[in-house]
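Local shape tokens

___
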Amino acid sequence: MIQAKHCDLCEHPKRDFENGLTCGLTDKKPNFIGTCPDILLDDLFQSKLESTNLEFYKIQKGKTKAYLTFYFLIIIGFLMIIGNELYADFTHTKIYSWRFIAIAIGSGITILTNAYFQLNRFRTKLKTAEFNKRKIDSVIEQYGISYNAKFEFKEKIHGNQYIEITTEYINWKEKQTKTLWEYF
């Protein structure tokens, strides 16, 4: 239901098990076409926009690290698999323990599997964050609202990262907001 995307950002929606999603103003299911004339984009909208953009930013910031880790683990895994025979040839020991070969190959396969799953987990998180950001952006675009978010990472206190988000809006009631987020 496309109306639910609008209602998720509005201050008026009511949800219950009996009726599902209804408008808090009309007590009816959303039935508008295009944009809602009664939408109230306020604190909930700002909070969802900032948290979604922060999550997307943090995941995208770790992209280089995720790919470097993947390639590093791939190299280590193949070296474990292929390198044990090369080690035997290099040291000129043909009486080579089959146990060591099995452990090296098993470790290499485990490392390769781990590399794949780490990269897959990162890509899934990135796709989810991109989807959530696109969903919010597509709704607010219909109301003519655009924004530019800037993130400033403050000091880290007792393991909690403080992040100041400065968001500049075009065609919204606020021109600029600054919010301090605590990220665990």
Summary: DSSP finds four helices and five strands in the chain. The mean pLDDT is 87. Residues 48 and 157 are 24 Å apart (CA to CA). The longest strand covers residues 146-157.
